[in-house]
């Protein structure tokens, strides 16, 4: 897999699958598998055994499952529109990610 242009904390839109159209924040990026975990997207139920030492109560737990990175698009912070991501070098030498749809800088 190549270098991914989506990072933890990015606001993304799901563009494919059962949760298409949902927006959320990226919680984790799995670079080896090419997947991302987005909050409140691709929710699954897990039957969990109680573990008193770890403080886990047990029962049926609902949590996010990873989805493929190609199924999400970054949302531009300026216009709120989904966009592809480019990389450019600023005058001061910093490499930043930007939204191609309107040129908004994604990295602070």
UniProtKB/TrEMBL annotation:
> Might you report a single GO cellular component term?
ribosome
Show the coiled coil region(s).
none
Asked if the record carries the keyword Hydrolase, the reply is no
Q: Which domain of life is it from?
A: Bacteria
Instruction: Spell out the molecular function terms from Gene Ontology.
Output: rRNA binding; structural constituent of ribosome
Q: Which SMART domains match?
A: KOW (SM00739)
InterPro entries given in the database record: KOW, Rib_uL2_dom2, Ribosomal_uL24, Ribosomal_uL24_C, Ribosomal_uL24_CS, Ribosomal_uL24_KOW, Translation_prot_SH3-like_sf
Residue ranges annotated for the KOW domain, each copy included: 5-32
Q: Can you supply a Gene Ontology BP term from the record?
A: translation
The UniProt entry, under Pfam families, shows: KOW (PF00467), ribosomal_L24 (PF17136)
User: What are the alphabetically sorted keywords of the record?
Assistant: Ribonucleoprotein, Ribosomal protein, RNA-binding, rRNA-binding
HAMAP family referenced in this protein's UniProt entry, alphabetically: Ribosomal_uL24_B
Biological role stated in the UniProt entry: One of two assembly initiator proteins, it binds directly to the 5'-end of the 23S rRNA, where it nucleates assembly of the 50S subunit. One of the proteins that surrounds the polypeptide exit tunnel on the outside of the subunit.
In terms of NCBIfam families, this protein maps to: rplX_bact
Q: Report the PANTHER family cross-referenced here.
A: MITOCHONDRIAL RIBOSOMAL PROTEIN L24
Q: Which family does it belong to?
A: Belongs to the universal ribosomal protein uL24 family.
What is annotated about its quaternary structure and interactions?
Part of the 50S ribosomal subunit.
Q: What is this protein called?
A: Large ribosomal subunit protein uL24
Per the record, the gene is rplX
């Amino acid at each position: 897999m190549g270098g991914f242009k989506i990072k933890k904390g990015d606001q993304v839109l799901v563009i494919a699958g059962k949760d298409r159209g949902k927006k959320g924040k990226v919680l984790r990026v799995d670079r080896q598998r090419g997947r991302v975990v987005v909050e409140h997207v691709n929710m699954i139920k897990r039957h969990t055994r109680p573990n008193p030492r770890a403080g886990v109560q047990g029962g049926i737990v609902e949590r996010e499952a990873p989805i493929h990175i190609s199924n999400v698009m970054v949302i531009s912070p300026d216009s709120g529109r989904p966009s592809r991501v480019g990389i450019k070098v600023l005058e001061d030498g910093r490499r930043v990610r930007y939204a191609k749809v309107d040129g908004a800088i994604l990295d602070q």
